Amino acid sequence: MKFLTSSLQIVSFLQMILDTSFVSLIQHAPAHKLLHTIHSRLEPQVSAISQGALLRGPLEPYAKAQAKAIREARDKVEGVKPKQLQGDWRQRKKQIREQANLAVAVYQVEELVL
């Protein structure tokens, strides 16, 4: 069950809301308490995300190795051939492109990130 949103998604959403309506909130005196409350709750989250981002570079090779080990174990259980035995890279790339072309509908929805 994945009902909880991540801290990064919450911070991004609040950042977008504050970016669009910050001037209005600053001019509205009763909103000052709300802004202070949001700041006090978001400050620890922002610092944690910043510290986590510093670890991303040094830990990325380990994360890739772990993901590869999990994928290989799953493939072994399911009886899937390793990628080296499924054909050369040109054939795999062509197959991926063909599958992507089949998956694209008439209209494609794109996500806009502000």
Structure characterization notes:
The chain is an all-alpha fold and 114 residues long. It has one domain. 74% of the residues lie in helices and 0% in strands. The protein contains three helices and no strands. The protein has helices spanning 7-27, 31-78, 89-103. Helix 1 (7-27) packs antiparallel against helix 2. The longest helix is centred in the middle third of the chain and has 48 residues, at 31-78. It is elongated, with a radius of gyration of 22 Å.
Shape: elongated
Strand content: under 5%
Biggest sheet overview:
none
Which range best describes the helical content: under 10%, 10-25%, 25-40%, 40-55%, 55-70% or over 70%?
A: over 70%
Distance N to C terminus: 28 Å
Number of helices: 3
As residue ranges, the low-confidence spans are: none
Summed over residues and divided by their number, the pLDDT gives a mean of: 79
- Give the number of domains: 1
Structural class: mainly alpha
How do the SSEs run, as a string of H and E?
HHH
According to DSSP, the number of beta strands is 0
**Rg over alpha carbons:** 22 Å
